[in-house]
Design brief:
mainly beta; 908 residues; 13-stranded antiparallel beta sheet
Length: 908
Amino acid sequence: MNVGISCGLLFLLIIGAALWWRQRQSAATSAAAIDALVPPGWTLLESRERLGATFAATAELVEPPPVDSALVARLWGQLCQLDVVVMAGLARIVERRGGPGNEEALAEQALSRPLAAGDRLTLVKSPDAVVLYLNAVQLVAASLRQQEWRRLAWGWAGESAAAAAPQLSFQRIAPLLFSDNFMHDEGALGEWKVVHGDWQVHALQTPVRSANPFSFLGCGERGEAIAGYWFWRNYRFTCSAHPLPGSSFGLGFCRVDERNGYELRWRPDSGTAPAALVLSKVRDGERQPLAKKTMAFAPGFWMELSVSQLNGLLEVHVYGHRVMQVVDDAPFLGGGISLLSAGGEGTVFDDVDVRPVDRLDLDCAQWPALVWRQVPGSGVGDAGLRDVAAGEIGGIELANSSVSCVVNGMDATNAVLELRSRISDGCMLLARIGPAAEGATEVGILWRHPGGEDRLASMALPAISGSNELRFSCLGRNAWVVLDGQSICWARVPPATAGGCGVSLAVRPGTTAQPKLMRVGVAPALPLPQVVDRVETFTHEESMRSWNNPVLEWLPSKGGDTTDYWHRSDFWSALAVDMDVTKLRSLAAQPRWGLTMGSEVDDGAAINTVASLVVDSKDNELQFRPAPDQEPLVLKMTRMPRSLGLERRDGRLVAYVDGEAAWNAVLPTSLRRLAFAGRIGKGDTRPWAEGVTLRAAGVKTDSFREAPTQWLPVAGTWEVTNRWECDPRWSFFSGTQLDGVACNWHKIRHGESLTVEYFVGPKMDAARGKKYEYAGDYNFVLAADGRDISSGYSFMFGGWDDRGSQILRKKKLLLENSSVIVPRSGAIHRRWFSLKVRKDGGRLSFWVDGVQVGTVVDPAPLTGDRLGLWTWHNGMMVAQFRLSSDQDDFALLPPGTLPVGTPKTPYE
């Protein structure tokens, strides 16, 4: 038997080697054939099997070009030959298929001046485009069909062509990822180089035991620090900034050199002009404003800014809001980034992040040709239809993507809409909405390839009209279609390959009411974000384990429910619970184990299991029960699964086995609002806590490890500082005001229902008492107007000089529990208290350390949407703030919102 196997393996190796040799010989023959076509005197790029998906080839002219000659860059690909030609007064991109005469000019652009010695020409080839830059500024560009490119040659053509072409330099370009939270040694600048001004990394006294201990401070009349390289391109640059009194600040990007690049600068109020953000293009030292947005910032407040450039489309975001979208017809090739600070006391920067542009939201504005590539005559696969709009989003390739659009006035009985993803090598995944048999409409998920078209899933669709938002998401081998927020079709799809995305809308000829494509978007399709439950910096400190120990996140089930443990957090939106079976060796000895989701019963006294995904070890079965009154769907197991997953998303409940969707069902009514994640399986050890993870939308956890850009402190001092005078090594986020109110509003605007969990501790002040005689007033407010605390609901732990804990509506006391107080003794020196607040419509609930302070129902709920932390004549330390809301995407305050005066409290 062993001899036979060995002979078989040897045979396979021989066959494989023969095929490899044949392929290599074929490639060598093809390369030789291409080499033979290179004109004499031309420079052929170093021989390679492939040039790469994205690359740049640069040549610098050492002398003016010969008269009556053209400089030509020639690319040989699988499907065609491409010539990029620069001649007297004109640059052209020409595609040739087959022999002479089969040429097509893809693009051309007049030159503003003749080429001269010292000019630098750079050819950039990306998967779907080719662009020629003159001195790092776009000269001519064209979209390309995807293919592999094998050779590049460069030389002069014409009667008086030079004998030798300029020498080429070649740079492969990989996806860009750069981040810096300035965790450097104090004084070490890392990747940053100072151009002007005084720049320094600032660290707290003991940075290894502090939340967010490092930052980057820039001072000077025109301070600038730079990082990056010339070939950084098509990226988004995000940064947190904190201007100090008297300073202005900004970000530079696509910075070619000191005299060329883009700048976003914030200009403070000058008395004659209001404060504003100004986006400019700096060309040869001359500044040309591209866009301006009136916007006020104030010293002492952190903000998050984001700038991007994708093939000439420039965007600026503040706090996630897009405030500018500009098209530059002659964009820069790319370049580094810079931090800018001018005047005053300087600007503090933190949390720099640079990565490829991977999401766009395009409205009805004019889009650059390389960003929205029109695909005429697509007909969505049907010659009987006429295109209304058809295009592909250029510059973004994703294996996992969400393609979305908004369509007005679509009648699906005579129109077809396709959302396409993974467009590559003649293949694509697509969602198709349109007419079916007998005048009905349907939605289908299809796999289109050179051999034909496979229908992977379909279902009937009610008539759609008016304005509809559709989204087609592909994640791994799972794909689904969402119509106006509800999932309507699921499918298992072929293995993922990265590709482009597009949208096509077509109608039957003679249709009178024409639908209109109002918006097109693309974004990565990602698993729901993981719910963060610890800070590594503090995991080894005993006193912090109450808020920094994942084991304590899981609470034993109460009553006779079948679930063993429930996670302590509330979830109002999309939720996924995952189990890594490989980490849980104890499962083999347990008869039943798995994952569950549940809802509250008995006025919140207990949680009942609603849906479950369970392994029955005795019967060797995997059982999925989507609702309590349904019989389980059963799958016989041939081996132990490596992972399990249970997810609610877009109105569906999906069960995953080994990362792939095994079943999906309509989400039960009892899981459509507040839900809980549970697990079946005995054990409360660290392997259990680390083997089961939660992911959720509508959840924001703030461990204060990054700059507090989401917060708006309006009264008191809010900063990262030490908690203990006797042990100043440990620092956390804190708020203090000893002669009034300290208030810190969150910039989020919350929905109707939400839950907030956070940990607080007293800030030591020995001068006021050595046994914490002053401890109290650890308070939270929600449903407020963002101006006064007394406009919302206040939840007070140790309010009114620690006479108890209270729930207030504006200034009216709704509930008081005198048994829940802050223990005023030395025993709380290192103690952290767990506070939990829930608003479920008009139902308000409050817990301290798991003990319910009380629940009250307001028949006329307040309509405010702001929340915040506050204390009175005191100081409070805050750790691990977690907000769970009924909004998938949090609404933030408009950029430039500033506080108005000191907020009034229930005490006043």
